[in-house]
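dude i think i finally got it to work??
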Amino acid sequence: MKGHFYRRGCTCKKKRCTCGSTWSLVIDIGRDPATGKRKQKTKGGFRTRQEAETAAAELIYELNQGMYLQEKNVIFKDFASEWLHIYSEKNSVKPGTIRIRQHEINKLLPYFSQLKLKDITAKRYQNALNDLKEKGYADNTLDGVHRTGRMIFKKAIEMSIIKKNPTEFAYLKKNRKSIEELEEQEIPKYMEKEELALLLKTSANKGLDLDYLIFLTLSYTGMRVGELVALKWKDIDFDEHTISITKTYYNPKNNTLDYQLVAPKTRKSKRKIVVDEGVIVVLKEHMLSQKKVQKRLGNAYLDEGFIFAKTDRQPGYPIFIKTVENRMSRLLKLAGLNSELTPHSLRHTHTSLLAEAKVGLEEIMERLGHCDDETTRNVYLHVTQEMKKEASHKFAQLMRSL
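look at this
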């Protein structure tokens, strides 16, 4: 099997070309089984004959070893759309995850949109990541973009569209952080027990309808707000004092009628939480109150069994996640607490108070529905480190009292 070489567009006819032309190669790759006609592989753009010969040798080796792959002329934009469909069907992912993946694909489109997959080189892909970094995107955003890029090209290889993965050795440039930043990073905002008590007292005395139950449940369970909003009465076992979390609420457009109940964030997110009797008592009180509203409104009330349901317009439909965020912001101002806290801060608060109560990290992870979570782990380690310091201080005090 031989390669034929020729210089494209050469006019100088010199031994060492000076007119800027390039070398090309033509290699027979067998016969088309359907037509019996000879098939040839042509490739050009080589600066020297030696480069063309090297490429030809590599191609001939692949043909002889049965490793040759005829790469397809598929453009990135089309395949990224096809991949997203395959990804959503295969993994049964939530609509929110699909929206994030599409957002990450959109970050890559300005660089690759109309390019053929086979023409996207490792250098071109790395340059795209570097350019996104220079544009100021956060490390978390870039991690997501690169993760999606890797999945797209991996699937292209699996489908025999390309033979080389341009993302294989790509890397993300990270900002070097100071010692102070390293010490402070990943410790989210959470409340001390006195601050939580004040928030709950404020919600009981000055809260709007449902406020006390909302923030009592969030702080005593550590559940996510989407999980709270999706709760139905059938999820509560009043005898065993447990709450079963099997779903989460999804409504990105905040359209009351157009919500979805989808699977929780991870496999571990489906769980059963034992709760304090005080939470059960308040839930029972709310159930009685809700039944009175249902009786008063009759057929106007959508009885789907939601615990945290609207009572004004579209009564019976679940409240918005945004409503919980706005309610907490209002209560924080009334209580004079840190206005940067969010409902998710109550999840971190739950972690910190469990750690303070000497509950193990594994038990906390199970309660929160985590397989593993660096943020939760850092809250736990931060709190337990402070407890160790306190133990050391108490020991020193004991010795000084002798």
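Residues 28 and 397 are 87 Å apart (CA to CA).
im so relieved honestly
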